[in-house]
Write a structure and sequence with these properties.
The structure is a homodimer. Chain A is an alpha/beta fold. Chain A has helices spanning 11-18, 22-29, 37-50, 56-63, 79-94, 108-121, 137-147, 170-183, 199-214, 228-237, 253-265, 299-315; strands at residues 68-73, 98-103, 125-128, 151-154, 164-168, 189-192, 220-222, 247-250, 275-279, 293-296, 323-326, 329-331. A 6-stranded parallel beta sheet of chain A has the order 2-1-3-4-5-11, sandwiched between helices. In chain A, strands 7-6-8-9-10-12 form a 6-stranded mixed beta sheet, sandwiched between helices. Chain A is elongated and about 90 Å long. The first copy, chain A, binds a DNA duplex through residues 10-12, 15, 20-24, 26-27, 29-30, 34-36, 39, 54-64.
DNA sequence: AGCCGGAGTGGAACCGTTGCCACTTGTCGG
DNA sequence: CCGACAAGTGGCAACGGTTCCACTCCGGCT
């Protein structure tokens, strides 16, 4: 009858076995303060012997802290967000927090469901990539407040800036990229973008526009180039006539790759005929020929900052919401027209 | 003084507000069985009104089920595992389970820590990618058993096959790939691999070897080609002398890309001089020129099967451990020597 | 010597939910 | 007409920790 009953030892078992009170054992679990050294050693050895592991559910219930951080990202297969999640996990774990990860697929509805799940699990803090601003963000903000738990937005600020956020310097980085293209003598620069409702995309468009405008040129913008056909159409539209485009700025990963494919298929020489810079580095950017010059966001720093800020809020150290921008950098490769730096020959994927 | 006290309503509050007993409210939360229709409606409306969300910690504590699945993968930035995690999450959520994801970086030590965390959180089931067999797997297996919770291994079986596993048909797929190369008249095929302690790699080597052997040829194998320099050395070693290699089979993602880079830098024509097939599809395999023929694992099916199997075990429907293999398929592109099928021109990244 | 405060310890009341048990009511077959 | 049984409902004791409180030492001050 004693078949596989998983009777895990409880704190009471440990206390009994060590001949002490439960309070003392509890103290040992939580750092051993106010416990004599010999007692501490005894209890620890008993815990090890029994293979005791505290029940987090019970701890959460009583202490009102779940030692859990909620993380909502649009997708885990996007390398950018994947790396973000990874770094967050490492830093959170260092402070004894576990990350519960949910994906929203950038749909406000799913994100609301995610928040309910987090509310049920009583997460102690929340790291969230807000969905596209086009969708009903009213409900989202309300739900975030309802949770009454520290929140840090990542990659995009919440619409009302009521919460802290950690984002890239999209505007400045786009400016820098466009100026670099202008430095190569390019004038007719096409900004090829995706969803115009995305904060990041908008900032990048603004930066590009302003950079061109301050030099006295006009900007070309084409949004919604998120599949091959529309990218092809968008680019070809500006390849006709006498004022052909002479550079493309891919406003995000996907559009950069699509632009590259289009050029390849139309045998348009890069960078001779058309220069190319992309926003966001990607796995094979250095392997393609020509290798692709990109704006590289410092994901590690973004993630580290966001996690740290959240932890600070959770400790109650910081109260006022902060908007933090992290600098990106231009990684020069071949597609912009620069000579290929040596490193790109052996860049790792 | 009433500043920001987060007094979330409890089940008792709901019961009081609805003028019913706690038991009835509890029943409503858990599906509403044995509750009259008008009472059900009343309680539901009260719950909505108060914005009640049950406290999972309390539920877990009492019911001994955390509605939580533990997931351990080597890395979340590896597209293969990322996609796996995504599909698992979707299926788990459908059954009201939340996934707690931890990464092991393929280090046995970290994986043991991960298991402790899961033990504390009393996960109801475990999906795990076992670390390389070189490391101390004894301790791992023991820890897995200690958890006394259903376990399904993914991508690689546990060494003793005591737990269920869901893996790709590495052996057969490698055979198929090598036969395809032989079909193009290739005889001197180099299998370029990574860690020889990895189950998947070993199976692929075996499949390749057997395919060649049964046709009367010899296999060339080079392991540990996980950075550019060693891949270069390994390949060049077989490009000297009169018996030059005429095909490369990249045993995993990284080695395929490295092989590609080496050939590119040495101006070796693919597929004319050397054919190339890679194990595992990757983002830009269709975009590179030549596009790369690969063995594509069916991640979705792998993940779906693994999750389903785990859920079955958790429901107690299946007890005996099962070893399941999922078929992979060969995606023909240019690098093997076949004519480029039309699709590759507009393949999405 | 008497007092005070802090370190070290244990007792016991919760935290919010579930599940066992008890109870009422209505229906139905014998 | 009565017992059995099912549906619908509520009371209450857990689950395994944490934390408040009380209590005992003991060393250092006044």
């Amino acid at each position: 009858m004693k078949i596989s009953r998983k009777n895990r030892p409880t704190l009471h078992d440990v206390a009994k076995a060590a001949g002490v009170g439960t309070t003392t054992v509890s103290r040992v679990i939580n750092g051993g303060h106010y416990v004599g050294p010999e007692m501490l050693a005894r209890i620890q050895s008993v815990m090890a012997e029994l293979g005791y592991q505290p029940n987090e559910a019970a701890r959460s219930l009583k202490s009102e802290r779940s030692r859990t951080i909620g993380l909502i990202i649009p997708s885990i297969t996007d390398p950018f967000f994947a790396r973000f999640a990874e770094v967050v996990e490492v830093h959170a774990r260092r402070e004894d927090y576990v990350v519960i990860l949910l994906t929203s697929q950038d749909r406000a509805q799913l994100e609301l469901e995610d928040l309910q799940i987090f509310e049920r699990h009583r997460v102690d803090g929340l790291l969230v990539v807000p969905p596209r601003s086009g969708s009903s963000s009213k409900a989202l903000l309300q739900s975030l407040r309802r949770l009454s738990v520290p929140v840090v937005a990542f990659d995009r600020p919440t619409t009302n800036r009521a919460f802290s956020s950690v984002v890239s310097d999209n505007y400045a980085a786009a400016q820098q990229a466009v100026r670099h293209l202008m430095g190569h003598g390019r004038r007719r620069i096409l900004c090829l973008g995706g969803d115009p409702n995305l904060y990041t995309i908008c900032e990048r468009v603004k930066g590009s526009t302003d950079a061109l405008a301050s030099a006295g040129f006009e900007v070309l913008v084409e949004m919604s180039a998120s599949d091959y056909a529309s990218a092809e159409a968008a680019i070809m539209k500006h390849m006709a006539g006498k004022h052909k485009l002479d550079a493309i700025f891919g406003l995000y990963n996907q559009s950069t790759i699509l632009a590259y494919e289009v050029m390849q298929n139309y045998k348009i020489r890069v960078p001779q005929a058309v220069s190319l810079i992309g926003f966001d580095d990607f796995a094979l950017a250095a392997t393609l020929r020509p290798s692709i010059t990109v704006v590289k966001q410092s994901i590690e720093e973004l993630a580290r900052t966001a996690t740290q800020l959240l932890l600070n809020h959770m400790k109650g150290e910081t109260h006022a919401p902060q908007q933090i921008e992290i600098a990106s950098s231009l990684v020069i490769r071949q597609s912009c027209g620069c000579k290929a730096p040596r490193e790109s020959l052996r860049a790792r994927s």
